[in-house]
Specification:
With about 210 residues, the protein is of the alpha/beta class. Helix 6 packs across helix 8 and helix 7 crosses helix 8. The strands form 2 sheets. It has a 5-stranded parallel sheet with strand order 2-1-3-6-7, with helices on both faces. The protein is built from 9 helices and 7 strands, in the order E-H-E-H-E-E-E-H-E-H-E-H-H-H-H-H. The chain starts with 6 loop residues before the first strand and ends in a 7-residue tail after the last helix. It has 2 domains: about 130 residues, 3-Layer(aba) Sandwich (Rossmann fold), CATH 3.40.50.2300; about 60 residues, Orthogonal Bundle (Arc Repressor Mutant, subunit A), CATH 1.10.10.
């Protein structure tokens, strides 16, 4: 992965630990932003380029899992690497179930953290690509007329043109024409491609 433009955010209320992690990441050629509080992070973290967050579980006045939850609520989809001063199995399980990339116990090896960061940045790139792809699909879906959207929903659900026409109270030939327009406007190469697009848009299908 090209790490140019990627950012690593670090939140740890222990200034010495925070700075040590920052120095390690800088030495590996990574761009870093350090935070000492939950509030500062929530205010300043952005949703742009590939990024990941190194997050201490035990913060003064906040729990790392609460920070993770607040980021989700703020629609910040950033891969998280949790750090903890002790091997807390229940918390690590909760963190991983909530989408954390890694849970490292202090003291950890430098290479362990660097490997986790690179894994997280790869995941961030994948997530960003998926968001961009879904945004483009939503834009194309919005170009469909309300009736064409209805036709798309029905045919990807497994209905034949004749069945869709009956449901919509129209003629089969009309549905065929509208289905053709849907394929063109959605830039679908095949019906299977249209079904995959519908799934990414959250439209139920029979597949």
């Amino acid at each position: 992965m090209n790490e140019a433009g990627a950012f690593v955010f670090v939140l740890d209320d222990d200034a010495l630990v925070c700075e040590a992690i920052g120095d390690l990441l800088h030495s590996a050629g990574l761009s870093v932003r350090l935070f000492g509080s939950h509030e500062d992070l929530i205010q300043d973290i952005w949703k742009g380029d590939a990024a990941c967050l190194i997050l201490d579980v035990n913060l003064a006045g906040a729990n790392g899992l609460d920070v993770q939850r607040d980021l989700v609520r703020a629609n910040v989809d950033v891969p998280i690497i949790f750090l903890s001063g002790q091997a807390d199995i229940p918390i690590s399980v909760r963190a991983m179930k909530a989408g954390a990339v890694e849970f490292l116990t202090k003291p950890f090896k430098d290479q362990e953290l660097l490997d986790a960061v690179r894994q997280a940045l790869v995941r961030s790139c994948v997530l960003r690509h998926q968001r961009q792809e879904r945004s483009a699909l939503l834009e194309r879906f919005a170009t469909l007329t309300p009736r064409e959207q209805d036709v798309m929903r029905l045919v990807v659900s497994g209905m034949l043109n004749k069945e869709a026409a009956s449901t919509l109270g129209t003629q089969e030939i009309t549905v065929k024409i509208q289905r053709s327009r849907v394929m063109r406007k959605m830039d679908a190469d095949s019906f299977a491609d249209l079904v995959r697009m519908a799934q990414r848009l959250g439209i139920p299908s029979d597949n």
